[in-house]
Design goal:
By secondary structure, this protein is mainly beta. Helices cover 0% and strands 47% of the residues. The protein contains no helices and eleven strands. Strands 2, 4, 5, 6, 9, 10 and 11 form a seven-stranded mixed beta sheet that branches. It has a four-stranded antiparallel beta sheet with strand order 1-3-8-7, with no helix packed on it. A hairpin with a 6-residue loop joins strand 4 and strand 5. The model has no long low-confidence stretch (mean pLDDT 96).
Length: 121
């Protein structure tokens, strides 16, 4: 069984919006830190938005003010609302989870399979 399953990716025009979802299994405890990463073609994977168990959030400068991370705790589903999308946002987007935000993205991180986002006119 997959621990994290993303959905909501697709194609959108510049300036448009998309909302990504990440369904987490019970293996991903509600106390885990969760977040979103992306990898653009020819670029390294980058962290975009983190949500800690206490509700605090962190955003990368590249998405701050445009993206918003949230969680439906009843269903253990992570969300990423993406607004004002531009061509440079085109990437494979990944959901991730770890015990602590300080280790999110490290070796102990659980990863989703990824969902493609393409922004073009």
């Amino acid at each position: 069984e997959k621990q994290l399953v993303e959905s909501g990716g697709g194609s959108v025009q510049p300036g448009g919006s998309l909302r990504l979802s990440c369904a987490a299994s019970s293996y991903i405890r509600t106390t885990y830190c969760m977040g979103w990463f992306r990898q653009r073609p020819g670029k390294e994977r980058e962290g975009l938005a983190f949500l800690a168990s206490d509700g605090s959030t962190q955003y990368a400068a590249s998405v701050r003010g445009r993206f918003a991370i949230s969680k439906d705790y009843a269903t253990n589903t992570l969300k990423l609302q993406m607004n004002e999308l531009a061509s440079y946002d085109s990437a494979m987007y990944y959901c991730a989870a770890a015990r602590e935000c300080v280790t999110l993205g490290a070796a102990s991180t659980a990863w989703g399979q990824g969902t493609q986002v393409t922004v073009s006119a």
